[in-house]
Predict the 3D structure of the following.
Amino acid sequence: MNTLHYTIYSAIGVIIGLTLPVILDGVERKIKAILQSRIGPPITQTLYDLIKLVNKEIKPIHTSPFILLYLLSFIATSIASIYMVETYVYTLESIYITLGLSLLAVSLTSLTLTPLLVPNPFSYAGGMREVILALINESAFILSTTLYAAITNNLAQLKSATTPSMLLSITTAALTMFISGYALTGRVPFDMAEAEPELASGVLVEFSGSLLAAYMYCNLLKRLLVNLIIVSVTVTPLIGESAYSLAAVYALTIVLWVIFAITAVILGRSRIDLAPRTLTKTYILLLALSITGLLVHAYA
Amino acid sequence: MLMHSDSIINEYVSLAKSMKGDAKAEKDTVHIVVPKETLVNTASKLFNEYNCDFRTCVGVDERPLNGYFSVTYIFTDNKNGLYILVKTYTEPQNPVIPSIVKTVPGADWCEMETRDLLGIEFADRDQYRLVLPSGWPEEIHPLRKDIPYNYRPPIRSVSEKITPSTELGVIPIGPYHPALHEPEYFELYVEGERVVDVKYRGFHVHRGIEKLAETRMTYQQVNFLAERICGICGFEHSTCYALAVEKAAKIDVPERAQYIRSIVLEVERIHSHLLWLGVAFHVVGYDTGFMHMWRVREKIMYLAELLTGSRKTYGLNLVGGVRKDINEEKKQKTLETLKETEKDFKKLVEVAISVPQVKKRLTGTGILPREDAVKLSVEGPVARASGVNKDARRDQPYAAYKYASFKIPVYTEGDNLARALVRVDEVLESISIIEQLLDRIPRGPIKLEDFEIPEGKTGVQVVEAPRGGDIHFVITGHGKPYRWRVRAPTYSNIPALKIMLKDQPLADAPLTIASIDPCFSCTDRVLVVRENSKTEWLKLAPGVQI
């Protein structure tokens, strides 16, 4: 593939990446409705909601002027991260996934810090919950994704991974990546920063109009970015270098979104003192098994 | 009706005499009158030695009758199916009686309500404003007979914030909050994610419903007013009111009417519990459980419409009977619907309760120990989940419950899960009760056409509503109640929240508050007056409409 084609495909990919979350959230709401014996809103409802919010006035909040900067920083770094992940899909060079993950970490930090700038007890409590979850999940996600990508970044290596120790290493790294990725998307049972009723929408409480629309859109974009990274890392080595690999990655990202949506329907919400404890124990166990498997494979 | 042995009644008569008072028994009610000097001892003996259950107290302005104010403390002897009313009088110039709160903590709110609404002071206790808004004039006591029902005193605007500043983190919940569906105010004091203290201010929607009944309405009209106290358990209130008046007037209601009342009461209980279970699942983020529980509930709403003509606020009760009969077709349809509901409900509960997050968050949270439940005289599923085995349907049988066989689910854990399981079990028991009553319903009239209601008679009734015992106290007057007092179960259950919320995770606070199935409008006795199909708003201050 020449540079022009690659640039065009990547640009189209970024545009799709920026618009897809709005539609996929509508799909998720429809899936939820069907599983709950409801009709539910049309799949374009999230788009309508965001348009309506953009057209509404912003209720002034006494907060840092950096709040909008944080959200813009999130969107900019997310675009850069999507571009890096797409580059990884085309080139299979692990430096790009590492860059993509680094940019993801920066963008998530911007998003997590935003509610802490709002002087409101609900927002602050929700923001602190978000920080606690982010500290655990981001570390586990970045570590497990890097580990998985390092083990499986080419098909030959993946095909040779038939020893039990290597299989153990790959499986546990993948499990950690999926669990932490799911937790990072902020769905039930990990939506405790904004959905617990005592917090009156927690991190969202003071946002209104286009500011609320921007914050909600950023959260949807975060979901897409996490899904995209998981799919790219797991699927690209199997496809290899192909002109259609990006299309395949986006198609499977949609599938993963649907799987996550269904998972969210069958679960209840955890609690801020329970979830971090359970997640930490799970991640430590899985990552320890993964690293042990890798070491056994390397030195056996 | 239980047979009340003379020896038991004589015990209460002897107690009254030993307290320099007097007593008389009428059917299931023992009326004790004691001087105010021995009131505390009498209450203490009933509560601690006779193990009577404290229900509420009622202040009455009896100046037009005998020149005094009175306060009646209502106890029930659940073992023997008796109501024990302890009454004391106080002079009108300086109305003060000793408080019984130190021995009977459950009397806290009703004493403060009596102080607000009748101006009777209670000695030897903390005084605070409970029902009236902070800006209401101190000298105006709206339930006194010389205050007209439409009197509008000037109101000052006063902040309702309980504590202006504190070193602890404060999470305000209410008066308007997404976790509350009615206006009430909780201040949760938190250290990190743990609740260390709770303060409460309610009665934002108190509208003097009792005053309206005592001044503007007839006996039969009050049935419909009572039903509007609550949008969920309104029929319990209208039944309780009708039974209290019928008891005071010694009216024997046709048996078929009593069966119909019990059947509809149980339909209302099922609807209420299904609604609550759905809300509980929603609060713990399990929205699928919430949606499906309300899908099942929809069948019960259909059933209510089939039996009464309305999905809610049935308008079925009258003093002396009911307005609508149940024919054979309705009977068959009801039985079919109940079978389907039972099957769906069992399947859904099995799945929902086993969802890990739901189970984890319900288990071990919001614990109310048995001793506190007894001390605070809590009601209904809250009491039964804490090991207090009481249920008015069995203990003070009314309507047609004596003809049905049913279990009273009791759990000892006292946590949110226990309260949920009590309600789950009660749904199944209610289905069984309706089936039994439909099978045995006798033929005959459904209401009395002619009866007299003599003046000056007292009737008190407990009806086991979905949230616990509703109590209606009536003193009969000329064509309308002279005094009508309503006490909803949430009134007794809210004070227990302080214990249930303390040292609990903040995230479980809405679940624990929801676990008592609070009905703030019941507690506050909401009222919107309608005249000539036009809503008439109560104006409390210039520019303020409520």
